[in-house]
Write a structure and sequence with these properties.
single chain, 291 residues, 2 domains, 4-stranded parallel β-sheet, 13 helices, 10 strands
Length: 291
């Protein structure tokens, strides 16, 4: 009799422990945006990730492409609802109708704007860390970002070199963008301000040549004109004005979003600034934040 009662009490105790563990498990999330993908995959434990966006595995767009393989790509609201996440991470540019359907289904939807400065980047990392109950991991990532910025300032140009952040089809990143904030930390002046471009815009070849930049920032080194967009970047007149040794490159997947990928972007910029500044880079200290 006593043994049976004891076994019953032990069973209740085990159930309470299991239930308590479930109640205190870290929130699980789905991401619908390539930028929130970066934050979710980098900051969450694997079991917290219920889905990522359809762009998460695209190596041209996603900093976490190599790490996103194990996770299901979701697109439709029905797919998200069926996974019953504790929180949905979205961008303000995700379809508002999708966000409304998810909210109407009782899901918590957190929308993130694109960061255009480093304060916004820190805020996004901190916010996702809080939503996922990964505050310490987020704090370590911010510390790593601040360390990278310190290395960048050490290597910064003192000559206020004028730089043209140029993409395919003549797209110039504007002065009110994260790319411009990154360049400013390096002591570089984004020519977009001279053009009156704040968010960015397309600029014709003749006008690009007339700008006479000291440097051009691209997202990848073009070796042949695979289409009209890339052909502009290889135009002989532009290359004559700014020869190959004055082009620097940071992959677009590192700067398209305000997140931990910027640490890698900063170190890539530092290495390429050495010929123009003569400053030896400080050693990197980049602890891994993710699982």
């Amino acid at each position: 009799m006593a043994g049976g009662v004891m076994r019953h009490l032990l069973t209740i105790a085990v159930c309470m422990v299991v239930a308590g563990g479930a109640l205190h498990a870290k929130p699980r999330a789905v991401s619908l945006n390539v930028c929130t993908d970066q934050l979710l995959v980098d900051l969450a434990d694997r079991e917290q990730i219920l889905g990522v966006s359809t762009f998460a595995r695209d190596p041209n767009l996603s900093w976490v492409a190599a790490r996103a393989g194990p996770y299901t790509a979701v697109a439709a609201a029905e797919d998200v609802v069926s996974r019953a996440p504790d929180v949905v991470l979205a961008g303000v540019f995700n379809k508002i109708a999708t966000r409304q359907v998810l909210a109407a289904s009782g899901l918590r939807v957190e929308a993130f704007a694109l960061a255009n400065d480093f304060a916004g980047v820190r805020e996004a990392i901190t916010r996702v860390g809080s939503l996922l109950q990964q505050e310490e991991r987020a704090a370590r990532r911010i510390a790593a970002l601040d360390g990278a910025l310190a290395r960048l300032r050490h290597a910064a140009s003192t000559r206020a070199l004028r730089i043209l952040p140029l993409q395919r089809r003549g797209w110039v990143s504007g002065s009110d963008t994260l790319t411009s904030a990154l360049l400013a930390e390096a002591g570089l002046v984004n020519i977009a301000a001279e053009l009156g471009l704040y968010a960015g815009g397309q600029v014709g070849l003749e006008r690009l040549i007339a700008l006479r930049p000291d440097l051009i920032l691209g997202s990848r080194e073009e070796t042949y004109g695979e289409d009209q967009g890339s052909a502009l970047l290889l135009h002989p007149a532009l290359r004559a004005r700014v020869p190959a040794e004055r082009w620097i490159y940071i992959p677009g997947r590192l700067t398209v979003c305000g997140g931990p990928g910027l640490i890698e972007a900063i170190d890539a910029l530092i290495e390429q600034l050495v010929p123009f500044t003569g400053e030896a880079p400080l050693p990197r200290i980049q602890p891994r934040a993710g699982p």
